[in-house]
Amino acid sequence: MQCSYFDAGLCRSCTLLDTPYAEQLTSKQARVEELLDAHSPEWLSPIASPEQGFRNKAKMVVGGTAAAPTLGILDGRGEGVDIRGCALHLAPIHDALPVLARFITLTGLQPYDVPSRRGDLKYVLVTANAEGELLVRFVVRSEDVVSRLRRHLAALQETLPNAVVVTANLLPEHKAVTEGEREIVLTSRDRLTMTLAGMRLELRPQSFFQTNTPVADQLYTQARTWVDELGPASVWDLYCGVGGFALACAAPGRAVLGVETSVDAVLSARATARREGLDDVRFEAGDATEAALQAQPGEHPDVVIVNPPRRGIGETLARWLDASGVQHVVYSSCNPVTLVRDLEWMPGFRMRRARALDMFPHTTHLEVVTLLERVDSPATDRPRVRMP
Ligand SMILES: C[S@@+](CC[C@H](N)C(=O)[O-])C[C@H]1O[C@@H](n2cnc3c(N)ncnc32)[C@H](O)[C@@H]1O
Q1: Rounded Cα gap, residues 215 and 334, in angstroms
Q2: Rounded CA gap, 52 and 121, in Å?
Q3: pLDDT digits over 324-378, tens only?
Q4: Which domains, ranges and CATH numbers included, belong to the chain?
Q5: Which of 30, 152, 161, 265 has its CA 20 to 30 A from that of 355?
Q6: Is 291 helix (H, G, I), strand (E, B) or coil?
Q7: Contact at 8 Å (CB) between 339 and 314?
């Protein structure tokens, strides 16, 4: 893929851009096979991504001035670099960014200046669904400027009619995070519907969503295929986000429970389950490890799906899984290093199958989904009972 920002040395986020895509994929597969070598799974062919136009979310730092804002990244001095034409984004995002830059000028919102810690607007976060509808979030420093966004909302909706959800997110602190805890929804709609893997997932603003829609489609499809082959009566989806795995694996007579810390994500997942009439699919807000530890002795599902952040599931949950009567684990990881570490605490399981998915083309990152099967009795031989 050709990128003028990369060629000009303005943006180096796509560290592998000089490497032909086929070569990127081969070397990622080789690296993950090497990392998981001791587990010798059956490897399924890797899932490639489109080389561009795959990102459903843009996280743009706002820099420059209200009259001439930059949308993109910060350079080494904390000054804005405009990369609004980034080719990774889906077309509706690509088309929306110049309109949003003009809107910033119209509102007079001052971009936040990192070195001086002055200004109102820190980021613009834009998510697009398959229908081209947009969720636009303005990450601002204080509530004072929200009225200005409200005042100009009609103008935004006129120039960007597909911006169906618009919010202000409050991030008063000078912190290296992209959003704060408070979200003020400015439109009548408060969520987007994301279509993938034969599902329509509701997405509220403060919820994680896999950024590469076509590859996420394959990820959920793979998990559903493995789970359906096993035919479990009960499944937990830990770190469930808006419920992609849980909802993909729902089936008549199968009880599914999703657990996730983000309340917005849980509300999104519940809304999808309700709309689809999936009475056997429940979602709870909470910590994944705590949820497992709170299960009554003997209480465990047949299959557990885990899809944690880069830090992995950690020792406590890994040991709980090992000591439980859970027969299969689907572990989907965006960091094979922590996956390998977590497996050290789960000696009762063997990795049967694995598949790499190129969720993050042009970078060294990848997703790997694995199917683990119990090979010896759990440390605590508990009878299997109904889910909570
Ligand atoms: C890699 S994302 C996966 C989300 C989801 N499985 C999906 O496919 O979209 C990890 C998720 O874990 C959630 N999370 C982080 N820490 C958690 C914890 N301690 N317990 C439960 N969920 C957690 C995050 O909010 C995020 O939604």
Answers
A1: 13
A2: 28
A3: 999 999 999 999 999 999 999 999 999 999 999 999 999 999 999 999 999 976 6
A4: 7-51+212-374 (3.40.50.150), 57-190 (2.40.50.1070)
A5: 265
A6: helix
A7: no
Whether the pLDDT of residue 274 is over 50: the answer is yes
Say how far apart CA 41 and CA 319 lie, in whole Å.
Answer: 21
| Active-site residue, 240 included | no
On whether the CB atoms of residues 218 and 46 are closer than 8 A, the answer is: no
Two tokens at 338? 């922590």
Q: What are the pLDDT digits (tens) for 160-213?
A: 999 999 999 999 998 889 999 999 999 999 999 999 999 999 999 999 999 999
On whether the CB atoms of residues 101 and 138 are closer than 8 A, the answer is no
Determine the residue type at 58.
A
> Residue 126 corresponds to which amino acid?
V
**Which residues share a beta bridge with 210?**
none
Query: CA-CA distance, 353 to 41, in Å (whole number)?
Result: 5
Ligand 1 pocket mutation pick from 204, 239, 304, 368 by most atoms within 8 angstroms of CB: 239
| 212 Cβ closer than 6 Å to some ligand 1 atom | no
Q: Does the pLDDT at position 318 exceed 70?
A: yes
Which among 357, 375, 346 is positioned nearest to 54, based on CA atoms? 357
